[in-house]
Amino acid sequence: MSKFAGTWKFVSTENLEELLRAIGMNEDFIAKSRDDKPTMIITVSDNNIHMKTEGQAGTFDENLTFDVCSEHKLPTGETYQMTISKESDTRMKAVFTGTATPGHTIYEICGNELHMTSTAGSVTGKSIFVKA
User: Which ranges form a coiled coil (predicted)?
Assistant: First the structure.
């Protein structure tokens, strides 16, 4: 999991607005996200991962324990539950429930890129970050 650790800079996204609508984000947040180029800082220890994302849409700071369901807040204030699991040294899967449409995100290291592919119902979006 050490390959995930570090600072990641945003490169591109596909289908983000549709994905945000599917999970129940409001139009104000979606508008802020349109031109956002967030930075993600990830630290990993034995059974924990800390992911902090900072951008114009806000700061999201999540401390997670692998394979333990925990409660989190959307920027709208609504709560949801998420469980993140290790699938390999270069792949993790987060499953979320309690949002307008439950779904999952695959985090995958591809060379010096971090690919995040999120699915909520029938909507899929992808973001790519590069290691800073």
Answer: none
The tens digit of pLDDT for each residue in 55-96 reads 988 888 999 999 999 998 877 777 889 999 999 999 999 999
Tell me, what amino acid is at 63? Answer: N
Integer Cα distance of 37 and 9 in angstroms: 8
Q: Up-side HSE of residue 122: CA atoms within 13 Å toward CB? A: 0
Name which of 99, 92, 98 is nearest 67 in CA terms.
92
Distance CA 128, CA 115 (A): 5
**Per-residue pLDDT band at 128 (split at 50, 70, 90):** very high
Domain enclosing residue 36, as ranges: 2-131
User: Is there a contact between 125 and 14 (Cβ–Cβ < 8 Å)?
Assistant: yes
Domain of 99: which CATH number?
2.40.128.20
Residue 97's H or E segment, with its range, is strand 91-97
Q: Total structural domains in the chain?
A: 1
